Automatic annotation (TrEMBL):
It comes from Kineococcus mangrovi. HAMAP family: NhaA. The chain crosses the membrane at residues 27-46, 107-129, 135-157, 166-187, 193-209, 221-247, 300-322, 342-362, 374-394. This is Na(+)/H(+) antiporter NhaA. Gene3D superfamilies: Na+/H+ antiporter like domain (1.20.1530.10).
Length: 415
């Protein structure tokens, strides 16, 4: 047996660097997202509230002739720009599956099981508290807003161990995978088989271009645009095309460059600092005047969402993690204690962006949409406050434990 030390592969360090940049962008993007959301609420409740409604309701036509698409500005953001956001999500999912935590089944078991627990229980709580048309929004409390959640943990700095941040990020990505499936399957009204076939054919062309060794990006952009149009016209939400294209992006070196890394490096800041804040500005503007807030607080829909995001996420994730560790299916990351898991579970209840997105898909009644948004605001704020409180407590207990250990070691070594 050789006595030389084992050589380490460059992948882990490279992945750590990419993870650090990803977390930095998400944390900073979370701050911009908060500013945009506050601006939307202020605008919608100001004397210029009519301008808010009319601006985002203004129709814009792109294209010409039979190929022209007409949408209001809010839907251009939700259906168009958010496809880029979901493309970046697809890229990150692909990276996690190939080089990240999800590539190892045993390492992926804990965050995957945690995400499932944090999806099923919120949906169950929601369905138990709602009935009739309101029950269509059961997917709303399932979501976790990565930018907001990571931003909250970033505010706590070194009080949060790296393992806890990684657990949150990986579980949130699995949560995104589930949410994407829910949007595609359950929030699609009618499907045009012809247009859907066109979308599938466009994705097949992407695969063909890869097989032919096409390295230039512009052909993929054109085919990707065709896939987006076909998906939009098919009845399946257009953002699914973004996810599919992200998952088809190759990893590793292609034509002398890392395509996935290049695309993510270029698009992730654009997504975090422009697209997601624009989405918040277009969708978070709820006019609370005229008794809306009081009415919403008396609605079972509001509490179904809020309790799903807070109680459902905390109990669902904590129970799933406990079961996973107890059965030996997975183990906690280094430096992560049960109280950290509780804090991560609470922060995962910040469902702002994707929750708002699903609310717009689930309801056609403006009153239900407005009430759902109040529930999302209430639950997400409560989850953030509770998560910060638990994480601060976990940090103090950890510091207290280390101090006790140091004193004990000092006493035991005293002659």
């Amino acid at each position: 047996m050789s006595s030389s030390p084992p050589t380490s592969t460059p992948t882990p360090s490279g992945f750590t660097d990419r993870l650090r940049h990803f977390l930095h962008d998400e944390a900073a993007g979370g701050v911009v997202l908060v500013v945009a959301a506050v601006a939307a609420v202020v605008w919608a409740n100001s004397p210029a509230s009519g301008a808010y409604t009319s601006f985002w309701g203004h129709y814009l036509t792109l294209g010409w002739g039979p190929a022209a698409i007409t949408e209001d500005l809010q839907h251009w953001v939700n259906d168009g720009l958010m496809a880029v956001f979901f493309f970046v999500v697809g890229l990150e999912i692909k990276r996690e599956l190939v080089t990240g935590e999800l590539r190892d089944p045993r390492a992926a078991a804990l965050p995957a099981v945690a995400a499932v627990g944090g999806v099923l229980l919120p949906a169950a709580i929601f369905l138990a508290l709602t009935s009739g048309p309101a029950s269509a929004g059961w997917g709303i409390p399932m979501a976790t807003d990565i930018a907001f959640a990571v931003g909250v943990l970033a505010l706590l700095g070194k009080r949060v161990p790296v393992g806890a941040k990684l657990l949150l990020l990986t579980a949130a990505i699995v949560d995104d995978i589930i949410a994407i499936g829910v949007i595609a399957v359950f929030y699609t009204d009618t499907v045009s088989a012809l247009w859907l076939a066109g979308a599938v054919a466009s994705l097949a062309v992407v695969v063909l271009l890869r097989r032919l060794g096409v390295h230039a990006i512009w052909p993929y952009v054109l085919v990707g645009l065709a896939a987006w149009v076909c998906t939009l016209e098919s009845g399946v939400h257009a953002t699914i095309a973004g996810v599919a294209l992200g998952l088809l992006t190759p990893t590793g070196s292609v034509g002398g460059r890392d395509v996935l890394d290049t695309l993510e490096h270029r698009l992730h800041p654009f997504s975090s600092f422009l697209i997601v804040p624009l989405f918040a500005l277009a969708n978070a503007g709820v006019d609370f005047r005229g008794g809306l807030f009081g009415e919403a607080m008396g609605s079972s829909l509001t509490w179904a969402i809020a309790l799903g995001l807070v109680v459902g996420k905390i109990v669902g994730i904590c129970a799933a993690v406990w079961l996973c560790v107890r059965t030996g299916l997975g183990r906690l990351p280094e430096g992560v204690r049960p109280l950290h898991v509780a804090g991560v579970s609470a922060v995962a209840g910040i469902g702002f962006t994707v929750s708002l997105f699903i609310a717009e898909l689930a309801y056609t009644d403006p009153a239900l949409v407005a009430t759902a948004k109040v529930g999302i605001f209430t639950g997400s704020i409560a989850a953030a406050v509770l998560g910060v409180t638990v994480m601060v407590l976990a940090g103090r207990r950890g510091a207290s434990g280390r101090s006790t250990g140091e004193r004990s070691e000092s006493t035991s070594t005293t002659p």
